[in-house]
Please model this.
Amino acid sequence: MEKKPFITKEQVEEIVKTYPTPFHIYDEKGIRENARKLKQAFAWNKGFKEYFAVKATPNPYIMQILKEEGIGADCSSYAELVISDKVGLKGHEIMFSSNVTPKEDFELAAKMDVIINFDDLTHLEYYDKIADFKETMCCRYNPGGDFTINSQIMDTPSDAKYGMTKEQMKEAYRYMMKKGVKNFGIHAFLASNTVTNEYYPKLARILFETAVELHKETGAHIAFVNLSGGVGIPYRPDQEPNDIMVIGEGVRKAYEDVLVPEGMDDVAIYTELGRFMLGPYGALVTQATHEKHIHKEYIGCDACAANLMRPAIYGAYHHITVLGKENEPCDHMYDITGGLCENNDKFAVDRKLPKIDIGDYLYIHDAGAHGFSMGYNYNGKLRSAELLLRENGEVKLIRRAETVEDYLATLDFGPFPMEKM
Ligand SMILES: *Cc1c(COP(=O)(O)O)cnc(C)c1O
Model:
């Protein structure tokens, strides 16, 4: 499928008069339409709720839009809980799916009365010393082995640090029932960025069967099954996108097959999607500032891996459109690089693109999730601004760019040069 930017060259030329490149920009209209489609796909389930994975795009303005669409937050750290609180999300509008959890994080989660998802059996006694168990608690499940779809290995839960074994799940439920917990959730995240409509239905079937077993063996009331994240997006133009309606229907079928015959037809479905909610609705916009002709052809731009890390660390593909040259032939081959002193700082390698001239704007697609949020300050590079393209066409600054003063702020303890240590 052809990948189309949600802004034009003319719009970018207007934006840079106020906000210079590089910047991340998000598309409010796309975010809202997609959120509504997700809700529609799971409308058959009375208790359905999406908890947006905050780590994907931890910006309160984005979370506010999602909140208006009825979406909560999935947090895994103290700061993410604080952001969610600032957005006005309360109590059970927030899931806390953390691991290796610090004491302070559990304390805050308990104080905010969010739904806590325990990653491990040993967390129960640890938590017991920190706060009271609530009426509703959740446990994260790790079935081990390989996770396959049509005998193709999608991921390897046996190598994943998350979750508990089935026996530990039973023990955890029994422990918490003694502590007065009434409602239980099951959570699992078994494969990431799946571009197949079969992931959620397959996962759901595993979790529903586990729910039945846990209920039968412990007597616990299973209130919800949390399918977590993992529904992916087509980063490459030749990939077939997921159809969320088909996915919702597949989960419904598993629900009818497994839970309904057991009389467990009050189980709510929760999701914690990040990438699917925001990925395609954010882009990194950068300007070509340098060219270099050595053993290969290079275009250097004003963004770098510090603004979008996925290509550098995962070798991930991000489609690039040269704005204003959408219809020109891709008859040049480039490496598109940033300025880090790291040779993996390349947004694209051997990419066929139209001829790029200095000053052209490059639109790096699908940077809306796990993009800005993974940014870092290596080489003293500063984080960019984040902008929001409103539905009415206005552009709003939703996070200012970092300054050198921000970079130095944590070093503010005394005059330099240092005297004696
Ligand atoms: C990262 C994460 C998610 C979101 O994953 P996506 O691939 O962005 O959908 C959801 N839940 C938990 C616990 C996570 O760690």
